[in-house]
Amino acid sequence: MAHVLSENAKVYRNTGSYASPTWDLVTNIKDLTLNLDKDETDVTTRSSEGFKEFVDGLIDASVDFSMLWDDADTDFTAIQTAFFAKTAIEFLILDGPQSGTGSAGRQGLRATMMTKSFTRNENLGEALMVDVTLRPAKNANSPPEWYTVSA
Q1: Which residue of 7, 65, 88, 117 shows the fewest CB atoms closer than 10 Å?
Q2: How many H helices and E strands in the chain?
Q3: What residues are paired with 67 via a beta bridge?
Q4: How far is CA 21 from CA 27, 54, 96, 98, 111, in A?
C-alpha cells in the first residue's frame, strides 16, 4: 500500500457487543483528527552524566471530528445522546474499510469512548455543524487498542 487518501478512511460505531461487534459505518463526518500523544517518564539518575533520560509513558488518545447537525441521523443522535447521558460508545477509527476487498491490514484505534465535547457551530452562510471530541472511557470490556483488520 503506497499511500492512503483520507477520504477513504472510515469511522465505525459498534451497535452490537464488544465480543460480537456490529460495525455501523458513520458517514456524517467531514474532517477527523486522531490524536495520539505519549507521555514521557523521567528516569534520570546520577549515572546519566548530566543528561535527562526518559522512557515512554502512557498514550493519550482523542478523536476530533465535525458532523452535520442532523437529528434524523442515527449516528449523530447516538453521539448526542451519549454526551448528555454521560455514556460511552465503542468506535473503530480505521484508515480504510473494516471488511471486504482491500480491508486486510487496515489499522486504527478501537476504543470505548466518552463524548467529551459536542459543540454546535452556527457560522452564517454555512450548514449547522457540530464539533465532537471523543476520549477513551473506562469500561468493563477492554482498554483502547491499536487494531489491525485480519484477512
Answers
A1: 7
A2: 1, 8
A3: 130
A4: 18, 38, 17, 12, 12
Dihedral, CA of residue 108, residue 112, residue 114 and residue 115, to nearest 10: 50
pTM above 0.85, yes or no: yes
For 131, what's the count of Cα atoms within 13 Å in the CB-facing half-sphere?
A: 7
Q: Given the C-alpha cell 509513558, which residue does it identify?
A: 57
The C-alpha R_g of the chain, in whole angstroms, comes to 18
Nearest Cα to 109, choosing from 75, 72, 68, 142?
A: 142
CA nearest to 109, candidates 66, 59, 68, 73 = 59
Q: Are 128 and 69 in contact (CB under 8 A)?
A: yes
Paired sense of beta strands 54-68 and 32-42, if any: antiparallel
